[in-house]
Structure formats: C-alpha cells, structure tokens
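REQUEST ID: PR-0412
SUBMITTED BY: lab tech R.K.
PRIORITY: routine
TASK: structure prediction, single protein chain
INPUT:
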Amino acid sequence: MEKRLIFDNQLINITISRLCHELIENHQSFDNSAILGLQPRGIFLAERLRQRLQDITRQKIALGYLDVTFYRDDFRRSDIKANATKIDFVVEGREVILVDDVLYTGRTVRAAMDAMTAFGRPEKVELLTLIDRKYTRHLPVEANYVGRQVNTLQSQRIKVEWKEQGAAQDSIWLVEQEDEA
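STATUS: complete
OUTPUT:
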C-alpha cells in the first residue's frame, strides 16, 4: 500500500481557520445556526470547527453528532456499526451545517439529510467537508464549504488521521489500494 501526504498538521489548521472565516461570513451571529458532525469521522472536524468559531466569535455555537447508519441505502448489505446520535437542540427552523471529513459518493450526505429530518425540518442545510473527492459522485451532492478538492481514482482512498483517534499528529493521506489478485 503506497500513501502520499496531502495535508500535514499545519495545513489542516490553516484550512480549518479558513473554513471558519467562510462560515462567519455567511452566518455572522450563529444565533440560528447549528453544526452537525456526521458520525463517526465528521465529529472530529465538527468539534474543531466549533471550538475555533467560539474562540473567534466569542459566541456559543450548537453542536450535535448525527449517526446515519440506519438511513444508508447499503445498511442491510454491510456490517456497519452504529454510533451515537447526540442532538440537544431543536433542528426545526435552524440553519444546519452538516460536517464530514471526506465527500466521496454523496450517499452518506443523502442519508444524513434523511436522518436529520427525523429531528425536524431545518430552515437551511449546508455541507462542509475537509476533502472533496472529485469525479466520484454517485448522487448530485455538492459541498458549500470545501477544504480542498482532490482528484482521485477508484483505486485510491483518502485517509484522515486525527490526534483524537490516537494518531501522532493530524494528517491526511492519499492511499493507493493494492489490487487483490
């Protein structure tokens, strides 16, 4: 397995700061906004965004975790494990920012839309992703806020490593998967 570093810790921090400033431009007060991190890996980015936004704006920002396992179209065909959903605010009428680390086929985002509406009808939904894998979409899904677009092949994957998950430092890798011949 061959891998190439595409984001180091410093670039991840710079990108998160840029994304926060983009969010501030569009949400200013965050009074009616909430961040929903998609389980399992989007929550680490969502937590970082929230903390940085609160440091910059000095405002409390609602944060929740959304598990989409039972809303996935491949739920019965795989052995995916469910994670906790934690939403302690009202979704109804809010501007919700869905956060995930990598946008790939769009199927997780579709499932997130279904899962989120079980908690109410938001006024507006936006998508923020650290990495947008170009040319891989199965559904017409596009992120409003993107850290970086990366051209990838089907034989490649993106691996995001967070300190919170035990990595030595935050990093993002482009991994060449070996053929299973």
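NOTES: The chain has one domain: 2-23+32-176.
REVIEWED BY: pending
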